[in-house]
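Field reference: sequence -> structure
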Amino acid sequence: TVASEIMAILCLAKDIPDLKVKLGNIIVAYSKNGKPVRAKELNVVGSLAVLLKDAINPNLVQSIEEVPAFVHGGPFANIAHGCNSLIATKMALKLADYVVTEAGFGADLGAKKFFDIKCRLGGLKPNATVIVATIRALRLHGGAEDYSSKNTEAVKEGFENLEKHVENMKKFNLPLVVAINKFSGDSDEEINFVFDKCREIGCKAVVSEVHAKGGEGGVDLANEVLNAISDNKLKYIYDVNDSIKNKIEVIAKEIYGADGVEFSDEAEEDIKLLEKNDLDKMPVCMAKTQNSLSDNPKLLGRPKGFKVNIKNVGVSAGAGFVIGYAGSIMTMPGLSKKPAAERINVDDSGKISGLF
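Structure field:
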């Protein structure tokens, strides 16, 4: 499942031998004297690997315009690292001249974790970043109650959210392009405002209309990304060998824009336990709401004057990262009020309905 450490392991494993090593390193409990008990000590690594024998192979699919794509893996970006499998990405790099890979949720989660965890652990060297933005999202961050209708003033107010994401991505030393994912209700006035503001802060914005026009609607964006690609070297925002607390503070201040971090007593004890067992020299995967740059889902725009509250700290020792749990984050996200399963059915003749 998307919330399981095994999903993160599947997506970070290089091959079956590496998968087995990672599965074996899963911590399932701690002994009475605080020592980790790992899956390999339970002699279950072989059976776990058998369950994943076919799942480790990337799924090759195609778009309706017959463009090949790997759709493989899905760790949540708010509680895990939010990227498709390392195997699929590396396979794509061997098969194509250019590879586009997606990292889930906002750039403070998916992109940051893509660079910090997937690229670091997998040795990937990306050449450019694309931040996908929508006018609707900028309206929302600008305080609009109805974000589906034109509201240029709200877009102006909400742009500071996009500006922070652009600032964050520049810290990783890669060229970037802003893709405006256009909806039918977006006005030229709103789009032109975003064009102008992006130019002011030193990046290019391009409209993407692939949803309405297919591949034709993405040609301008594709050309701009090709122009942006460079040999810049990816720069990490912290040393992986730094302390857990320092790594969390760097993320909170540099990426979220926080004034600092407050650690609960439980989090302090968690960190001591991890340090005692030499489990602290790993990348940090922050578990945080996707609805805000802060750890409070109600703080829209570009929050300022806040501190990130770390309730507890855990480790996915198999996947290879420490997890800082910020705010009131749910680690097993639930279904929506009306999940897709309620719409799906099959009639007496075997015809399936409700999938699309």
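Note: The longest strand covers residues 307-316.
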